[in-house]
Amino acid sequence: MDIQLKKGILDVCVLHAIAGGESYGYKIISDLQGIIEISESTLYPILKRLEAGGFLTTRTAEHNGRLRRYYKITNLGLKKLVSGRNDLLEIGVIYKKLFGGRI
Predict the structure, then answer these.
(1) How far apart are CA 11 and CA 53, in angstroms?
(2) What is the predicted pLDDT for the residue at 69?
(3) DSSP per-residue letters across 7-45
(4) Cβ-based neighbours of 11, under 8 Å, separated by 6 or more
(5) How many domains does the chain divide into?
(6) What domain range includes position 93?
(7) In CATH, what number is assigned to the domain containing residue 54?
(8) d(CA 41, CA 76)
(9) Predicted confidence (pLDDT) per residue in 6-48, tens digit
(10) CB 32 within 8 A of CB 38
(11) Predicted local confidence at residue 21, as pLDDT
């Protein structure tokens, strides 16, 4: 898959996983299991990039004696999620027109 296309899809998936409420890395990976495969080494750079872009905010809190970073989607992140969802829907329409829904 084209790296830029995959990057955009992963961003949308991560934002979707966080849109329901504050979350953390392992939970995001768990929430996306069965939808798209994503490893920790892929997830954390995505989270950093989304935070740097203003799409997420973070806070750190202790959990079971360890620090855990929690991520929360911003209003800008919600707008990016809606835009990304619309892009994916458009890709789905193109796919259906080209391949009739067949792989």
Answers:
(1) 12
(2) 96
(3) HHHHHHHHHHHHHTS-B-HHHHHHHHTTT----HHHHHH
(4) 46, 49, 50, 80, 84
(5) 1
(6) 3-99
(7) 1.10.10.10
(8) 25
(9) 788 999 999 999 999 999 999 999 999 999 989 999 999 999 9
(10) yes
(11) 95
